[in-house]
Structure formats: structure tokens, C-alpha cells
């Protein structure tokens, strides 16, 4: 299963947007995370639909935060991105008739469900302004 890095990439962009404090183009964002601007626009549209960012067209257009980082949690962004799988490990389904596989899957599913619940609970407690706040303020103060 392929690793889904959308959450970390979007968080990276959002914290940069707060520091830049002007409209940021999809091209600039794409350069920040080494991807295509179309991918950025598609992802940012999800955040716009959830009212975390706004966009303006034109010569000085781009994306802006619609809320302060202190009012957005990791859980908010996770939900806005469509709640992709938290874990890249999965359950086997090649021998679904096998009682051993069923027992293993049940045990793994229970553990993964419990871990996911704890992780999402913690996501709800972390606001974006807390992400590396000490490092970011140091970076911004360097001028």
C-alpha cells in the first residue's frame, strides 16, 4: 500500500501560508512540497470547501487562510482531506474463508481501531499554531 502523505504536506503548506501572510499561488505551494500545481489546487479545493482557506483569481491572486492556525486542528484537516487511512498496513483478504486468517484479521483490526481512535483524539487536541511553534518563531525572527 502506498504511503499517503497529504496530511503532512498540507500542514507544511498551511504553516507556510500563515508565515507568508499574503496570497500564495499553487505554483509556490507546489514548489514547497515538490509536486504539481494541479495536485495542490485539487487538495486546496478540499480545504476551501471546508472553509479553512479562500482563493482569489487574478494577477495578485492565490490562496489565503480563512481562519487563524489556532482555530484549526489536525483533526479538522484530516476530515477535510477525506479521512484517508491512518495506517498503511492492511488486513489480508486472500483466504477469507480460512478461520486462522479471520482470527488474525479480527485481532489486528481491534488493535488498529483502538490506535486510530487514540490518534484521532490526539489530532483533535493539536492546533496548527502548535506545530513546531518554537522552530517557526525562531525561523521567522531571523528575517
TrEMBL record:
Superkingdom of origin organism: Bacteria
Gene3D superfamilies: Winged helix-like DNA-binding domain superfamily/Winged helix DNA-binding domain
Xref: InterPro entries: Tscrpt_reg_Rrf2, WH-like_DNA-bd_sf, WH_DNA-bd_sf
PANTHER family: HTH-TYPE TRANSCRIPTIONAL REGULATOR YWGB-RELATED, WINGED HELIX-TURN-HELIX TRANSCRIPTIONAL REGULATOR, RRF2 FAMILY
UniProt-recorded name of the protein: Rrf2 family transcriptional regulator
